[in-house]
Design brief:
- By secondary structure, this protein is α/β, with parallel strands linked by helices.
- 25% of the residues lie in helices and 26% in strands.
- The chain has six helices and nine strands; from the N terminus they run ααββαβαβαββαβββ.
- The strands form two sheets. Strands 5-4-3-6-7-8-9 form a seven-stranded mixed beta sheet. A two-stranded antiparallel sheet has the order 1-2.
- The longest helix is centred in the middle third of the chain and has 13 residues.
- The two termini are 31 Å apart.
Length: 224
């Protein structure tokens, strides 16, 4: 895709990622090869290659691309992992994860967003990612343990079901805070439980709702 008249393209996001000290070349290549314009509402495509959040409905916004890659980089993916993503939105982060891991399961709260994410991923020929609708704080019950988990919404602690679904040695990244002012933290599952490793970034995130998150009256219903 060309970007006439000096309009920014994917390379603009790669430069923003490098500025955020992301050095993983596999991740930067995935960012370069994943057209963000295919994962945002048509009304906001002019902003797709700016390093900014974009509204996607239900009071939700996409995560700023440079922050997405910082969170994904912290997972240290090598290609063989099963990854659980909480909060898939329109599927941009899902697509990046799918290019870096063996399989991705995304849990999205809103059925219409999940349906759009599925369509966006299919449109890019990405077949190793599944999007389900449900309570992200429950993860995917009865699933084999995941090698990595990334949570794209904020809560003051990691929901216990997510810790339980992370294999020993696995990594989890989550914004920790009340929603609006967070520290994005990297954890590792050890024999002692979940241990904090470092702060990835300071950021603003929407709240994580569900049984082990903030209370919500919205249903978690699958549209398809």
């Amino acid at each position: 895709m060309s970007h006439p008249r000096g309009d920014p393209g994917p390379e603009n996001l790669v430069e923003a990622a490098r500025a955020a000290v992301v050095t993983d070349e596999r991740l930067l290549r995935a960012l370069r090869e994943t057209p963000r314009a295919a994962f945002v509402p048509a009304s906001h495509r002019a902003s797709a290659y700016l390093d900014v959040p974009i509204p996607i409905g239900h009071g939700q916004v996409t995560t700023q691309p440079s922050l997405v890659v910082m969170m994904v980089a912290a997972l240290g993916l090598t290609g063989d992992e099963r990854v659980l993503e909480i909060g898939s939105g329109h599927g941009f982060q899902t697509a990046l994860l799918a290019r870096l891991a063996a399989h991705v399961v995304g849990v999205e709260r809103w059925a219409d967003l999940a349906e759009q994410a599925r369509a966006n991923l299919a449109g890019q020929g990405i077949g190793n990612a599944d999007i389900v609708v449900g309570d992200g704080t429950l993860g995917v019950p009865d699933s084999p343990p995941f090698d990595a988990i990334v949570v794209s919404a904020a809560f003051p602690e990691v929901p216990p079901p997510l810790t339980a679904q992370l294999r020993a040695g696995g990594r989890l990244v989550q914004p920790v805070g009340p929603g609006g002012q967070e520290q994005v933290e990297l954890y590792e599952r050890t024999s002692q439980g979940l241990e904090r490793r470092r702060t990835v970034a300071h950021a603003h995130f929407v709240r994580l709702y569900g049984e082990f998150g903030f209370p919500s009256t919205a249903p978690f219903e699958d549209a398809g």
